[in-house]
């Protein structure tokens, strides 16, 4: 399974996290701010160690010593091009190009970010270039994991691998330890130095999935996405996507030192386990007393359980989760982590493989119980799914209806008006763009397919469509259909309905 493969690849170590591919960062101190003559440095052999020096007050000051050969023989630039569908006008495509960084590791493979090669279809083209070379070598995506923003590339060319130095994967560094981030800015390799400053769980922008990462006190340059983070000659992370306010971070996974096997069937989607809970902390003494917690007890209160969760039907609303696999959960929903650090309890579950179990200790109506929960991923976010298929859409009366990013329980998803193709039929409704659809003829809309069925089954009646902010849209079915035939021709749209909506629902 891809998840096992990629977890084997970067866990116990981690991924670094800057929003490096589309956020401009100020120049940062790099390897002691000294790589004054990069070409001279790159002449050092693979096994050599070079001492980087910096002139300070007229004197040369010795800085950290580390293997500069990593730069020359391990790091590559990744080029990606594809045609992707527009999210607001799904019948249209546009060319997407981007570049990032990657590095060689065992098995003649390249590790990079999933967001660098995110759209995989018949139009996708991926190439890599070695430092100092003008040749771009054709590559293919062997495995991809959007959830954790990782991808593995294969390059068949034997010429490419001549002289390449695969990097060894390492473990989690302690706090205040110095690490180096390697990457490209333009055609130059840059080095950024920072100290490990904190551990945290945050959502990845690429997949909207919350996973653990470790932050360092530095920002990095545009183009570093996919670059290795080095500590004591080993890769402990991969630069990945975060928000503009964030600095470089890391994400650990389990079984980092295990080999990545090639004989397993590849999945297009990586999956990470989750209990699928909506919960709240219980730091207030009054709520703890209400649920009959003793003074020694700590935990979290379950508000809701996802239908796709392995805990559904076993755990219940208003259960207090006291511990997971014997690890007590604090009232602020954290568990012990590295040294004196604490981290969200979700970390314990995300480190498990699908099919593994966790022992969950709960307090229910004043009595303690233990349940063995079979772990599995909840249904993937639509943001992850969107990388594999043409977006769903439905055009009615010139209004383009599409699903919003988030997919919720009970097959529910928000539907919005992404575009209004102007015509007499929708005159006066121009301000309704981007509003969410709530009801059709007083029936709550569950998802895009349901909206399509509610409208198409209406026949010739007038339709009343309730939108957010109490806005109301009224259209005559017959008039809207006649207008659509003209609108489609005007905009060169082949169909008012995406193919997935014309197929029977599962």
TrEMBL record:
Any GO BP annotation: proteolysis
Name used for this protein in its record: Protease Do-like PDZ domain-containing protein
Keywords: Hydrolase, Protease, Serine protease
Taxonomic classification: Eukaryota, Viridiplantae, Streptophyta, Embryophyta, Tracheophyta
Family stated for the protein in its record: Belongs to the peptidase S1C family.
GO molecular function, one term: serine-type endopeptidase activity
Protease Do-like PDZ domain ranges (all copies): 406-500
Protease found in the keyword field: yes
Gene3D superfamilies noted in UniProt: 2.30.42.10, 3.20.190.20, Trypsin-like serine proteases
Keyword Protease included in the entry's annotation: yes
One Pfam family, short name: PDZ_3
């Amino acid at each position: 399974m891809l998840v096992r493969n990629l977890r084997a690849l970067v866990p116990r170590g981690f991924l670094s996290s800057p929003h490096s591919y589309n956020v401009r960062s100020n120049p940062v101190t790099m390897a002691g701010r000294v790589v004054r003559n990069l070409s001279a440095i790159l002449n050092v052999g693979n096994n050599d160690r070079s001492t980087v020096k910096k002139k300070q007050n007229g004197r040369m000051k010795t800085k950290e010593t580390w293997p500069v050969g990593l730069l020359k023989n391990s790091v590559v630039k990744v080029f990606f091009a594809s045609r992707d569908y527009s999210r607001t006008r799904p019948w249209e495509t546009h060319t997407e190009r981007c570049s990032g960084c990657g590095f060689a590791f065992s098995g003649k493979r390249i590790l990079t970010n999933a967001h660098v090669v995110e759209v995989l279809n018949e139009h996708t083209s991926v190439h890599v270039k070695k430092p100092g070379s003008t040749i771009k070598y054709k590559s293919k995506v062997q495995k991809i994991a959007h959830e954790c923003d990782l991808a593995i590339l294969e390059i068949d060319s034997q010429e490419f691998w001549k002289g390449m130095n695969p990097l060894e994967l390492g473990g989690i560094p302690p706090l205040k330890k110095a690490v180096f981030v390697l990457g490209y800015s333009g055609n130059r390799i840059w080095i950024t130095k920072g100290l490990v400053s904190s551990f945290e769980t945050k959502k990845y922008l690429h997949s909207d999935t919350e996973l653990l990462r470790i932050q360092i006190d530095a920002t990095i340059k545009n183009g570093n996405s996919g670059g290795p983070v080095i500590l004591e000659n080993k890769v402990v992370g991969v630069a990945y996507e975060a928000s503009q306010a964030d600095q470089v971070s890391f994400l650990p996974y389990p079984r980092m030192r295990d080999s990545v096997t090639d004989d397993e069937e590849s999945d297009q989607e990586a999956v990470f386990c989750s209990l699928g809970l909506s919960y709240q902390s219980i730091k207030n003494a009054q709520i703890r007393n209400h649920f009959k917690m003793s003074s020694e007890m700590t935990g979290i209160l379950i508000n809701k359980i996802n239908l796709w969760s392995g805990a559904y039907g076993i755990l219940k609303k208003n259960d207090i989760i006291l511990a997971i696999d014997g690890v007590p959960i604090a009232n602020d929903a954290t568990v012990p982590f590295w040294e004196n650090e604490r981290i969200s309890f979700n970390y314990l579950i995300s480190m498990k493989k699908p099919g593994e179990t966790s022992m969950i200790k709960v307090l229910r109506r004043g009595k303690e119980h233990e349940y063995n929960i079979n772990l599995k991923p909840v249904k993937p976010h639509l943001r992850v799914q969107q990388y594999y298929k043409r977006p769903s859409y439905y055009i009615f009366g010139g209004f383009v209806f599409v699903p919003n990013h988030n997919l919720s329980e009970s097959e529910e998803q928000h539907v919005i008006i992404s575009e209004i193709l102007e015509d007499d039929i929708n005159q006066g409704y121009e301000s309704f763009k981007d509003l969410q659809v709530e009801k059709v003829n007083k029936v709550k809309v569950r998802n895009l397919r349901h909206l399509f069925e509610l409208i198409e089954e209406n026949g010739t009646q007038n339709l009343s469509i309730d939108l957010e902010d109490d806005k109301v849209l009224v259209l005559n079915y017959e008039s809207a259909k006649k207008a659509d035939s003209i609108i489609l021709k005007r905009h060169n749209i082949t169909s008012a309905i995406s193919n997935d909506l014309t197929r029977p629902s599962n």
